Amino acid sequence: METLFQLDIPVLPKIGSGKVREIFDMGDELLIVSSDRVSAFDCILPNPIPFKGPVLTGLSKFWFELLSDVVPHHLLSIRGADLPDKLAEYRTLLNGRFMLVRKARPLAIECVVRGYLAGSGWKDYTATGEVCGHKLPSGLRQAEILPTPIFTPATKATTGHDENITRDQAAKLVGQAILDQAETISLKLYKRASAYAAERGIILADTKFEFGLDSDGTLIWIDEAFTPDSSRFWPKETYEIGTSPVSMDKQFVRDYLEGLDWDKTPPAPELPPYVIEGTTQRYLDAYQRLTGIAFALPE
After folding, report:
1. Cα 160 to Cα 281: distance, rounded to the nearest angstrom
2. DSSP assignment string, 183-243
3. What number of H helices and E strands is found in the chain?
């Protein structure tokens, strides 16, 4: 299928454009379109990753539906037939990469759950022995499983890096009652998904969620769900404590960029074909192993 790097739909007002997604206002609903853009170190890279957007959309649909008994979600449809007639000319382009969703007021935090010591959590632990206010046992090694999954909220930066914050800081942003509810739901979602992934040979090391309040004030799950963009996936067969494990996400891109003489400021360098192809394969592999079916566009 054709890659999509950027999208404008003249008949719809665009209300948001992130590192990956374009968001359009459709009155009572939103149209969220996942492009094939990939970002690293807060820079959007110049090369799209084939199939990336559709994999994000398909996996989100899969997880939203699988875990709908835990928390309501915003997804209404990913079927082209459900798009209005005024978008008829865009149906082929959008097929597989859009979500029609309910509107919600997003919380001012990202809800991160960590089950293993990796990424910024590993860096914080080596410096302080803590991760976002959680005091952890001494002597833990990189990529080691934590005694129990921990909830580590973060700010939501429109530009630059999200920053890890403590629960007390998060409570000041969203209120204690909402934070408690979001933490309980996040941990339950993570435990359910990590057990499911483990049965399919994948370690779910950590993940992040976004929640919002709908028109009735109900907390709902929004944005994406357990994708290679929002989660750290490790194949069980290559997992090893004390190293940075082989990943099934965009860590492959980060690792390539780390080896370059690049100061991590725009413009980002071009990706070679083998990195683009390798990233596509990792996303497709994650989709197939988690869903149990080969990737295909929706009919």
Report:
1. 28
2. HHHHHHHHHHHHHHHHTTTEEEEEEEEEEEE-TTS-EEEES--S-TTTEEEEEGGG--TTS
3. 7, 16
Alpha-carbon distance of 239 to 203, in angstroms, equals 8
d(CA 65, CA 126): 38
Rounded CA-CA distance 144/120 in Å is 14
Task: Report the topology of domain 106-252.
Answer: D-amino Acid Aminotransferase; Chain A, domain 1 (3.30.470)
168-202 burial, b for 16+ CB within 10 Å, e for fewer? ebbbeebeeebbeebbebbbebbbebbebbeeeeb
Cα(93)–Cα(29) distance, integer angstroms: 20
How confident is the model over 142-170, as pLDDT tens digits? 999 999 999 999 997 655 567 888 889 99
> Could you say which residues of the chain have pLDDT below 50?
none
| Domain span(s) for CATH 3.30.200.20 in the chain | 14-103
- CB–CB of 17/34 below 8 Å? no
Check if the beta carbon of residue 123 is closer than 8 Å to that of residue 95: no
Tokens encoding 217: 């004030």
State both tokens at 204.
């779910």
How many angstroms separate the Cα of 181 from the Cα of each of 68, 121, 148, 167? 16, 23, 19, 12
Q: What is the largest CA-CA distance in the chain?
A: 60
Distances from the Cα of 259 to the Cα of 49, 209, 254, angstroms: 20, 30, 9
pTM recorded for the entire structure: 0.94
